[in-house]
Structures are given as structure tokens and as C-alpha cells.
Amino acid sequence: MQKFPIKLEKSLEKRKQQDAVRKLCDSTGLVDFSSNDYLGFASCRDISEEAARILESGKLLNGATGSRLLSGNHDLFAIAEKEICTVFRSEAALIFNSGYDANLGFFSSIPQRGDMILYDEHAHASIRDGIRLSDARSIKFSHNDLEDLEKKLIRHIGSSGNGEIFVVTESVFSMDGDSPDIKGLIDLEEKYGFFLILDEAHATGVMGEEGRGIVAGMQLQDKVFARILTFGKALGSHGAAILGSENLKQYLVNFSRSFIYTTALPPHSVATIIAVSRNLHTEGKKEVEKLKNNIDYFLQVVKDLELQQYFITGPSAIQCCLIPGNARVKNLAAQLKRTGFDVKPILSPTVPAGKERLRFCLHSYNSQVDIKSVLSLVAKNMISLQ
User: Fold this and answer.
1) Where residue 156 falls among pLDDT bands split at 50, 70, 90?
2) Where, if anywhere, are coiled coils annotated (predicted)?
């Protein structure tokens, strides 16, 4: 047996003691309340066939063959980025290999030494990791608390010298499913002159007019310095894009290391991005509407079963039932699995201790029967947990 570093072994043992060991899961065949495939696009035959047609008219390659600055900038990228700009209302778009790559590439290259980054305390790990790679200073503000953000802006605006200030948050948060006050953020931006960045990963395809995201749905795209969209969630494919001005795109092409020094997405992935973007504002509009109806129905059943005290609810596809303690929430998730429902437990340290939860991801293809059944099981088990 190969040697293993003692410190790493101790870290694994500590995770086991916390009952928080992560494991790779097989696909279950259960009723899906866990995936990010909010609109069912990942298994949509029409999208798959459209992507195949796009490939036939373009490049039939298995791989990109290199980075986009070398041999990998196949013709489909220009088509995809133009389509993304049309659908999501942006001057320019630049495709990255994933949302993680996009956030690393943005925050490690855009904020400079002497600049300040203010980020929501619940910001995604990819945002935090990108900030760690930046030469700028950074400080978090209380979750969705614009008063705290303004206090920190006032405190640091004088000490930033000639540096720029960047404020980053998410339009829908992955662990709570809640959203910040976007108009309030815009008001602060106009008052203090900072650059606003919004990660729309969990809003893309779900929120706003025809699933265009919250920013475009509110016609505020010209007020936001940068938006990060991902295609691996509601759009059922892979990759991500940073939306903003043409100047922003050109800067990222020249200085974003996670863009420059990686093999580009293969043609098939880019063809699928084109297909899902087109589908979103054509046939996909029906799925967006079905998802919104299911969200409304879920919230109504939560109310009918008097479960409001346990849930963090909102208008997004993510709904969370707080069940403190890793063991307790894992036990309830296991009970739901035995009855045919795939609802994932979210454990500490992913969320703070005492804030463990069941996270329900809703989809356009969930039936009202399944929604009511799974929530009835939760209600029954919540009584036994009291």
C-alpha cells in the first residue's frame, strides 16, 4: 500500500467523525429533487438532435485540439457567443469551460493591486477561490444585507486611494435559493461608483422573462459590469460565459489565465450551448412556465402542511428544509430515498453547523403528485423529530 500523508489522513478521519464524508453517488433512478437540470434540457431529444445538426454543418471533431488562442477557437464559438448575447441581452460574451473556471479567471485577473472586493458572505466557493488568487484586498459583507454593504463601502472608500471597488454577489444563492435586492444594489452602485458583478448560475433559465436571468429580466444589464452564466444547470449542457462589454471580453482574452491556459471546450459542447440557447426562447418557454408553476405549487403545499417554520422559501427552484445536525438530516434523506425520492442532505461544513438542510431542487418535469407526496413524508417525519 502506498504511503499517505499523515495530515491528510487526519483530515479524512476528522471528516468521518463529523459524519460529513463526501462520496461519489451513482444516478439513482429515483424521483429527481436533487439535480440542477431544472428544465429537463439535459435529456431533451430535440436539443440533442439540434446539436447534432449544428455539428454536421460545422466541425466534426472529438476535441478542440488546443486553447482558443492556439488551435481551439473553432467556428462554433463565434456562433454561440452571438446567440448568448442575443438571448441574455449583452454587448459581448466569452465562453469558459465551466462556471468555476469563469469565476477563477475573472477574479484573478480583473481586480488589481490596490483595488477592493466586497463579496457576500454566502458567495460560492469558486468566487472565493478566484478572490484568493487576486492581488486586490477583499472583505465580506453580511448575506443580502445592503445596509452592511453600504457601511463597509463608506468605511473603505476613503482608504482605497485610487483603486477601484468591485462588489460581487449571486442573483440566486445555491444553498438558500434566495436573492439580493438587485435594484437596491444598482442604487448603491450609482451612489458609490463601484463595479457590480453578479453570478447568475442558478437564475439562468429559471428567473426573469423567458428564463433570461434576473438582470436581463429586469432590463438592468447595462447597469451590471459583469454577469456569470453557467450552462450546466437549467440549460442542461456544460460550460459558462462571462457577459459584459467588448472591452471586458478583450481584457479577459488577454489576461484571464483560466481562459488562456486550457484546452477549449470541444465542438459538441459548444453546439449544445447553441442548441439550448435557441431552445430557451422558443420551445423552452413552455418548460420555464411549467417550472414556475411547480415552484408556486410547492410553496402552497408547504403552507398547507404548515411547514413554513422549517423552510427557507422563495421564488427560485431551490427550496430548503432546515434540519440541524448532520446525522438527523442524513437520516431523513435516507428515509425519503427508501420511498423513491432523491433529495440531497446538505451537511456542515458546506453550510454552518446547525444550518444543515434538505435541499429540494424543483424541475419542470416534477409532477404535483410527487411534490405533494414528498412534502407529506417530510411533514410526517418532522413530527417524529420534534
Assistant:
1) confident
2) none
Interatomic CA distance for residues 131 and 112, integer angstroms = 11
pLDDT tens for 173-224 read 998 999 999 999 999 999 999 999 999 999 999 999 889 999 999 999 999 9
CB 176 within 8 A of CB 313: no
User: What pLDDT digit, counting tens, does each position of 322-358 carry?
Assistant: 999 999 999 999 999 999 999 999 999 889 999 999 9
Cα–Cα distance between 98 and 83 in angstroms, integer?
Answer: 18
| DSSP E strand boundaries for the chain | 31-32, 92-96, 116-120, 137-141, 165-170, 195-199, 226-230, 240-244, 311-312, 318-322, 341-342, 344-346, 357-361
Domain 58-280: CATH class, spelled out: alpha beta
Domains in the chain: boundaries: 27-43+284-385, 58-280
Kindly report the number of other CB atoms within 10 A of residue 146's CB atom.
17
Tell me the HSE value of 118 on the side-chain side, using a 13 A CA sphere.
28
Is the distance from CB of 120 to CB of 180 less than 8 angstroms?
Answer: yes
Please say if the pLDDT value at position 162 is more than 90. no
For Cα atoms 26, 30, 35, give the angle at the middle one, nearest 5 degrees.
70
CATH architecture assigned to 27-43+284-385? Alpha-Beta Complex (3.90)
For the chain, state the CA radius of gyration.
Answer: 22
C-beta separation of 346 from 320 below 8 A: yes
